[in-house]
């Protein structure tokens, strides 16, 4: 293996692949970054058993081949090199880097012990990079964090014709985002459950270009196993695969109430600030109680008789009579933050039924592309 | 060489596992989700579990578990993406580790049709950790196979045990062990036979005795101590012998810990690229990894010390078992420690079966005390006194 590559592009590609390196590699080879030089250029890859990452960078290949070196060390070295062409050569059991007058020698790790990197599954379609990153974040907040309920730690991605739906729930709230995309086949239908923390990070890291391609392992015996994403980073093609969580997902669509008894809309930013202020004085996760009047909203912390803090806010409410409903403040804040719009619309059925939060451009028009369903806290006597 | 060749003297088990793997390959599913590999320490239960995992992943057209294809090799090297091996380094496996494991087990396989999760020493699961695993084993991810390794099925809570298919491994016979030592490790037949016999069916121990002169010397010292204790020493002598045995265990554990810790630190340095040809450069974030390693090593040191004490107790027990064999059968064929035959003979002549049984019991009591965190020296002293009691009085 022998090639020449620009320092900037090299450092950027290595840094991108190094993000997913395990902090505590269970065996030494997993701390490695694999350099593959062939006719397609230079591919820099890492794999931690859950996520694989490959960055392709233009390079002048003098001799094809592969080398496995410590990822952290390579990332440190490439970052510190002067902005000049870097010559890289495999020499026996070492990889030698030369850049200007600097020379580094890295020992190689045993490549025969390195796990097989999963191949990118078949292409499913293309989605706008920015909206995908936004959608991933809007939904990932509602995913569970309890590892003993693994299914709930995922974001469900459903591909159905021209619509991609992302959904996540931890049983206390449910976030659903729909967006349009260009499917590879117009009649596509498939689903995948992606670990939430991975999805958010992957989506963010692929915003260097306009589009993100999605790949999915259809036609596997037993169901899909792997999802892949490809897009542009700051210096070349980036692709990554993530193992899916295996198992049946919650039938979440039936959680949305079929009727609405009352609606309200509130300016989002003042609402967020008021919830923060009111819940600040109460102990952690004491519910925040909302009482909707025709033109106003009363926020109180504490579910008992005596609230510890209260605040009035302008709001519009169309219910028959006043409605009092209580929420976990951090879950409410997550939803208010995620609607991503100036006005938040709230739909209610009753104080004991879930409420639905949606964004809206103006007071009359809630948008349906993002819905955040939030279970109320029962008001005790 | 087939991956099952590593599993010594368990023909019935390897046949079963190979046929299950063959059927699984043909049918695509119908594989039991949870397996319990039960067998005495050193019988090769984790090796059998790993061989089974390799056979399930093997891609060779010539048969399952070829040992040569990339899948087999990476499973055996511990780097296959669809095989997770958990080996408790400390005395127990706790809730935090169990949660991490359950999260991993929930994932779909990467390159294979299944993901295999191997828990070595599953008897070390804490109650909380067992509960966490129970949930995952009750409702396993559709393509995850659990292999739990334990000395006996009863070392696992019934709720988990009842959900597993049991694979029972027996103590491999000394001939099978000697065969492997000769053929695979290239040990002289005479040495191999003696080591296999002395190790009482513990494969790792036999290999150690066959390849490590120091280990042989340590064993011999313990057997000599047993002979001395059986020879009615004074109280002061008994206490001195007890102290020497504990010191020997401490020294052995210390050496082992030092060598292994250094090797691990070197491997971690290599993986993180510390000091690798770049003048002591430490990449960011590596300090945390080294702190983690040190914490793990510390918790393991306690376990290593306990294992060394346990080996000594095993050798002491082996001596008195041989004494009992002579007293019961009168034939020397079944004696394991042939190299100290005259001392065994002497002790058998000087004591009764009841004495010997009482002595074996004292050793088991000491083992239980150590397991329950007793001070090793006090436990060994109590045992030494019981062993040196020549049984003039009636025994209980
Ligand atoms: Zn194979």
Concise overview:
The complex is a heterodimer of chains A (381) and B (396). Chain A has helices at 7-18, 71-80, 129-140, 196-205, 268-281, 329-338, and strands spanning 2-6, 32-38, 41-47, 51-57, 60-63, 65-70, 85-91, 94-99, 102-107, 123-128, 154-160, 163-169, 173-180, 182-183, 189-195, 211-216, 226-233, 236-243, 262-267, 288-292, 296-301, 309-314, 316-317, 323-327, 343-348, 355-360, 370-374.
Give a description of the structure:
- The complex is a heterodimer of chains A (381) and B (396).
- In chain A, 18% of the residues lie in helices and 42% in strands.
- By secondary structure, chain A is α+β, with helices and mostly antiparallel strands.
- In chain A, a hairpin with a 2-residue loop joins strand 17 and strand 18 (236-243).
- In chain A, helix 1 (7-18) packs antiparallel against helix 2, helix 3 packs antiparallel against helix 4 (196-205) and helix 5 (268-281) runs antiparallel to helix 6 (329-338).
- Chain A is elongated.
- In chain A, 49% of the residues are buried.
- Chain B contains 15 helices and 5 strands.
- Chain B has helices at residues 11-27, 45-57, 70-77, 95-105, 127-138, 158-161, 174-183, 189-198, 203-211, 213-230, 235-272, 286-329, 341-350, 353-371, 376-388; strands spanning 34-38, 83-86, 115-119, 144-150, 165-168.
- In chain B, helix 4 links the parallel strand 2 and strand 3 (115-119).
- Chain B has 3 domains: 3-168, P-loop containing nucleotide triphosphate hydrolases (Rossmann fold); 173-211; 235-390, no CATH class.
- In chain B, helix 4 (95-105) runs parallel beside helix 5.
- The radius of gyration of chain B is 23 Å and the shape is globular.
- The longest helix of chain B has 44 residues, at 286-329.
- Chain B is of the alpha/beta class.
- The chains are: A alpha+beta (381), B alpha/beta (396).
- At the A-B interface, helix 2 and strand 9 of A face helix 3, helix 4, helix 5, helix 11 and helix 12 of B.
- The site of zinc ion has 7 residues of chain B, from helix 3.
- Zinc ion is lined by residues 58, 60, 65-66, 69, 71-72 of chain B.
């Amino acid at each position: 293996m022998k090639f020449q590559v620009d320092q900037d592009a090299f450092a950027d590609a290595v840094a991108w692949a190094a993000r997913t390196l395990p902090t505590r590699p269970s065996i030494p080879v997993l701390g490695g970054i694999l350099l593959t030089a062939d006719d397609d250029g230079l591919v820099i890859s890492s794999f931690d058993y859950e996520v694989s990452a490959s960055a392709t960078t233009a390079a002048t290949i003098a001799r094809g081949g592969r080398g496995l070196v410590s990822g952290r060390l390579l990332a440190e070295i490439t970052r510190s090199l002067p902005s000049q062409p870097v010559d890289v050569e495999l020499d026996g059991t070492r990889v030698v880097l030369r850049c200007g007058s600097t020379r580094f020698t890295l020992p190689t790790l045993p490549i025969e012990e390195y796990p097989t990197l999963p191949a990118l599954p078949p292409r499913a379609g293309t989605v706008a990079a920015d909206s995908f990153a936004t959608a991933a974040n809007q939904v990932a907040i509602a995913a569970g964090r309890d590892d003993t309920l693994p299914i709930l730690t995922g974001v469900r991605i459903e591909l159905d014709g021209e619509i991609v739906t992302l959904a996540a729930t931890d049983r206390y709230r449910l976030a659903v985002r729909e967006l349009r995309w260009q499917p590879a086949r117009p009649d596509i239908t498939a689903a995948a459950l992606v670990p939430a923390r991975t999805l958010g990070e992957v989506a963010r890291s692929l915003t260097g270009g306009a589009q993100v391609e999605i790949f999915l392992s259809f036609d596997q015996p037993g169901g899909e196993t792997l999802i892949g994403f490809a897009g542009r980073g700051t210096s070349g093609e980036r692709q990554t695969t993530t193992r899916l969580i295996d198992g049946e997902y919650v039938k979440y669509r039936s959680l949305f109430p079929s009727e609405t008894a009352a609606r309200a809309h509130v300016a989002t930013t003042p609402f967020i600030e008021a919830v923060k202020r009111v819940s600040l004085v109460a102990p952690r996760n004491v519910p925040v109680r909302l009482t909707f009047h025709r033109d106003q909203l009363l926020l109180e912390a504490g579910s008992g008789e005596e609230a510890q803090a209260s605040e009035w806010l302008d709001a519009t409410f169309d219910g028959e009579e006043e409605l009092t409903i209580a929420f976990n403040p951090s879950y409410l804040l997550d939803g208010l933050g995620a609607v991503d719009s100036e006005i938040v619309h709230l739909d209610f059925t009753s104080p004991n039924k879930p409420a639905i939060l949606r964004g809206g451009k103006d007071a009359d028009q809630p948008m349906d592309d993002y819905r955040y369903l939030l279970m109320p806290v029962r008001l005790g006597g | 060489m087939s991956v099952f060749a590593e599993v010594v003297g368990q023909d019935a088990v390897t046949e079963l596992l190979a046929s299950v793997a063959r059927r699984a390959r043909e049918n695509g599913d119908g594989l039991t989700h949870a397996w319990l590999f039960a067998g005495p320490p050193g019988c090769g239960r984790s090796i059998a579990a790993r061989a089974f995992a390799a056979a399930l992943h093997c891609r060779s057209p010539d048969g399952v578990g070829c040992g040569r294809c990339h899948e087999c090799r990476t499973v055996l090297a511990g780097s296959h993406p669809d095989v997770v091996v958990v080996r408790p380094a400390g005395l127990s496996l706790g809730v935090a580790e169990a949660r991490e494991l359950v999260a991993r087990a929930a994932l779909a396989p990467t390159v294979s049709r299944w993901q295999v999760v191997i828990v070595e020493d599953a008897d070390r699961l804490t109650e909380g950790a067992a509960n966490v695993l129970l949930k995952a084993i009750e409702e396993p991810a559709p393509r995850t196979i659990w292999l739990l390794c334990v000395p006996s099925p009863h070392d696992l809570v019934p709720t988990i045990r009842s959900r597993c298919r049991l694979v029972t491994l027996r103590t491999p016979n000394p001939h099978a062990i000697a065969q492997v030592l000769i053929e695979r490790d290239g040990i002289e037949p005479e040495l191999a036979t003696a080591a296999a016999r002395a190790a009482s069916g513990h494969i790792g121990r036999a290999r150690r005795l066959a390849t490590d002169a120091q280990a042989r010397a340590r064993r011999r010292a313990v057997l000599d101590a047993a002979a001395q204790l059986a020879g009615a020493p004074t109280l002061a002598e008994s206490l001195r012998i007890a102290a020497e045995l504990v010191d020997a265990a401490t020294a052995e554990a210390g050496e082992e810990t030092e060598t292994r810790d250094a090797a691990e630190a070197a491997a971690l340095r290599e993986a993180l690229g510390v000091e690798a040809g770049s003048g002591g450069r430490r990449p960011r974030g590596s300090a945390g990894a080294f702190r983690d390693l040190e914490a793990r090593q510390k918790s393991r040191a306690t376990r290593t010390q306990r294992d060394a004490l346990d080996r000594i107790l095993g050798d002491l027990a082996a001596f008195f078992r041989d004494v009992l064999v002579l007293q019961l059968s009168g034939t020397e064929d079944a004696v394991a420690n042939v190299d100290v035959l005259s001392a065994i003979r002497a002790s058998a002549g000087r004591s009764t079966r009841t004495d010997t049984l009482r002595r074996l019991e004292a050793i088991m009591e000491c083992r239980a005390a150590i397991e329950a965190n007793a001070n090793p020296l006090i436990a060994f002293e109590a045992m030494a006194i019981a062993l040196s009691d020549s049984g003039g009085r009636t025994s209980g």
